[in-house]
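Input (structure):
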């Protein structure tokens, strides 16, 4: 069986853009492999966002980049906590 919600990379990008809110209820139907796939893709998207550095004079782009990084970091924290609670190794 594949990933529970389709493409994990697209889901990670949607989380970064703020289209999907991550909370413990979000993970209700996930399996152990889904947690690992989502974790790997969140890290991948986080690296992509960090690599794309806008000009420091473009305040709107800097703010948008920081918001994306914040959403990714918060979702990683929630995912790690949820996996620790379920005793799933990432």
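Output (sequence):
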């Amino acid at each position: 069986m594949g990933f529970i919600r389709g493409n994990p990379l697209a889901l990670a990008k949607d989380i970064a853009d703020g289209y999907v809110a991550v909370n413990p209820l979000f993970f209700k139907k996930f399996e152990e492999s889904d947690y690992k796939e989502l974790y790997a893709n969140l890290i991948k998207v986080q690296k992509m966002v960090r690599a794309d550095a806008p000009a420091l004079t473009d305040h709107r782009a800097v703010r948008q980049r920081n918001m994306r990084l914040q959403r990714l970091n918060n979702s990683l924290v929630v995912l790690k906590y949820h996996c620790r609670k379920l005793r799933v190794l990432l």
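Notes: The chain has one domain: 8-86. Residues 59-86 form the longest helix (28 residues).
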